[in-house]
Amino acid sequence: MENGNARRHFPWSAFGLREMTVVAGKPGCMPNRRVQSKTKRRAAAYARQREQQDAAAIRHALEREQQAAARRAAAAELADDVRWGTRADALDRLSRVGNALGRLRIEENALVTERDELIAHLRESSVSWNQLASRTGLSRQGLSKRVPRSGEM
């Protein structure tokens, strides 16, 4: 450094910046505070924009999910209409199915009673529990519970 106007080189590249030449002793070499405040304002504005964009993206995602749920509900209702018809048709079908189940329960009870009577009769005729179990599909224990005791008949 021979005089006050000599140039110094600072290794700006170590900080990821371009090479800059600084002149010693010149007032223009002081950092520009207005540029720093402008940079801060710009960074704050970018941060606000990112927050607004993120909030908008979340809103749009929720709206798309609601629309998809509405489409799925409409498709399910359409599929039900194809299968069952109108609501009145579905209610009529429900009544018919309920009545049919009631008739089947009555018929099943009558058949179970007849089976129990046959088991009791065959058991009195000395048919083995094993033979009865193989014919009815019930276990021997289940058969013995079905047979009324001699005092109950």
Tell me about this structure.
The chain is mainly alpha-helical. It has a domain of 49 residues. The chain has 4 helices and 2 strands; from the N terminus they run ββαααα. It has a two-stranded antiparallel sheet. The protein is elongated and about 115 Å long. The mean pLDDT is 80.
Quote the distance from N terminus to C terminus: 129 Å
Alpha carbon gyration radius: 46 Å
Our estimate of the beta-strand percent is under 5%
Strand order of the largest sheet: 1-2
Give the helices and strands, then pairings.
Elements: E1 7-9, E2 21-23, H1 33-84, H2 87-124, H3 129-136, H4 140-146
Antiparallel strand pairs: 1-2
What does this entry show, briefly?
This protein is mostly helical.
Structural features:
elongated; 4% strand; two-stranded antiparallel sheet; single chain; mainly alpha; 69% helix; 153 residues; 4 helices
